[in-house]
Design goal:
Strand content: 15-25%
CATH class of the largest domain: Alpha Beta
Oligomer: single chain
CATH architecture of the largest domain: 3-Layer(aba) Sandwich
Radius of gyration: 33 Å
Helix content: 25-40%
Shape: elongated
Order of helices and strands: EHHHEEHEEHHEHEEEEEHEHEHH
CATH topology of the largest domain: Rossmann fold
Strand order of the largest sheet: 5-4-3-6-7-12
Number of helices: 11
Length: 349
């Protein structure tokens, strides 16, 4: 495992390209200055030992040495000892509906984006807990397996959109069944699932599966997305013009929240049903319930001891500076006399 003890020093690396720009400007000014003395070839003839390559070599070596010094100042460290650390937390599966009806805009900016923002805020509040993401519409699949990598969770969350599931619908039952398989096997009462959906056009026996999950120690909460009056489902053409989805008869489809189903699922799962609106999502209340759950010990391996490795970078930097010191700006006279490619040509008369 590798890390930096003082990572802020790495911002000094920004100076390297800036110094490169200054060096190029200095070379251009030097050329202009030489031109002011007369013809460039004539001036070059007067200074035959001047090298045009060696300044570049010296600059590159100096830049490399500076880079190594900055890295050394940042305190590079390598982990040398693994240690098992026991942490207490809960396992949480969030099942997010990505069906087209979640694009309805009765909850600004739309149901899906509002849910994703709320989940992101929930992830920021997790500590020592594990999280998994499931997306579902007519089918369900795991977007992110159970993990404590919250950065990965937010990254995967940002990519979620209705195109992930081609089969439309709202298969809450499939999401519950897949969620039950996503938890770490065990009898601990530290497992919870949050289903975020508008509940419309649900498929499968969601209530029965929620009851089975609760019997297995999994608490299921549901969050209803949408308003009771409903909202049309927007669609956009290639030109970005907005329209609304219609049925076979050409009537605009109004997506309405199916609260009754979600209440039944939550009741069977031993959890709560919360209805989202434009001012709140309800995840804060659920977070308090998650904190009140019994915590289970979850072992994880971490590097407990780190050794400083800055001396290697400093050593290489000093070596490079030593070499750079002995490289002169002018050509080496002895080397310039050598011409390995020169041959004597005898003229035959």
């Amino acid at each position: 495992m590798f890390q930096f003890a003082h990572i802020g020093f790495l911002y000094g690396l920004i100076a390297l390209p800036l110094l490169g720009v200054v060096f190029l400007i200095a070379l251009q000014l030097k050329k202009r200055h030489l031109k002011s003395f007369g013809d460039t070839e004539l001036v070059s003839g007067l200074t035959p030992e001047a090298s045009s390559v060696r300044p570049w070599i010296k600059f590159i070596l100096a830049e490399t040495a500076l880079m190594l010094v900055i890295i050394a100042m940042a305190g590079p460290q390598f982990g040398t000892k693994l240690k098992e650390v026991k942490r207490e937390g809960v396992e949480l599966v969030i099942a997010l509906d990505v069906s087209n009806s979640m694009l309805s805009e009765d909850i600004a900016p739309n149901r899906l984006e509002n849910a994703k923002r709320a989940i992101s805020k929930l992830v920021d509040r997790l500590h020592n807990d594990k999280i998994a993401l499931i997306v579902f519409a007519g089918d369900a699949f795991v977007q992110l397996p159970m993990t404590t990598d919250y950065a990965a969770a937010k990254m995967f969350l940002s990519t979620i959109n209705p195109n992930l599931v081609s089969n439309q619908g709202t298969a809450i039952g499939e999401a519950i069944e897949l969620g039950m398989k996503s938890f770490t096997p065990g009898d601990e009462k530290n497992k919870a699932m949050i289903i975020i959906t508008d509940g419309e056009n649900h498929e499968g026996n969601a209530v029965e599966l929620a009851s089975q999950a609760n019997d297995a120690g999994i608490i299921i909460h549901t969050i209803g997305m949408g308003l009771s009056k409903g909202s049309p489902i927007p669609v956009y053409n290639n030109a970005g013009q907005k329209d609304f989805r219609t049925d076979a008869q050409g009537n605009v489809i109004i997506s309405k929240l199916d609260e009754e189903t979600l209440k039944k699922v939550a009741a069977a799962g031993g959890g709560d049903y919360i209805r989202a609106n434009n001012t709140k999502m309800g995840l804060n209340a659920l977070f308090d319930k998650l904190n009140s759950m019994d915590k289970a010990e979850m072992e994880s391996k971490v590097y407990s001891e780190y050794e400083e490795q800055y001396q290697f970078f400093v050593g290489f930097a000093l070596l490079i500076l030593f070499v750079e010191f002995f490289i002169l700006f002018k050509k080496n006279r002895w080397l310039s006399k050598m011409n390995l490619f020169k041959t004597n040509i005898l003229e035959i008369k």
